[in-house]
Amino acid sequence: TYSTTARATKDYTGDVVTTLAENVNLVETVLEVNDASAVESGKYIYVGQEEMYVEDVNTTTNKITVKRAQDNTTEQNHVQGAQVKGINYPGTDDNALIQFGDDFGFDGTIT
Prior knowledge:
It is a single chain. The protein contains no helices and six strands. The chain is mainly beta. Strands 1-6-3-4-5-2 form a six-stranded antiparallel sheet, with no helix packed on it.
């Protein structure tokens, strides 16, 4: 038996948690944001078309440490002021909005 739990891999609700305070190149993993207090460690964010996993948040310096290009997205350059959207942040449920029939790359049958 094989079982999975669906997890949203993009922001369906449009909830902006902060904006970028600087331009971000393809290799940066520490990003400065305008307000890190709304960003949560251990959650995913979406900037442009790139998903990132938040490893650490420093609210004193407004810097977040991320793993870039998650769930088959690609690293992108991002401009200062770009929206940082949260995936499944408090008060939102992106998982509930996953489109019916999305198999996340899994298909077939088990017999």
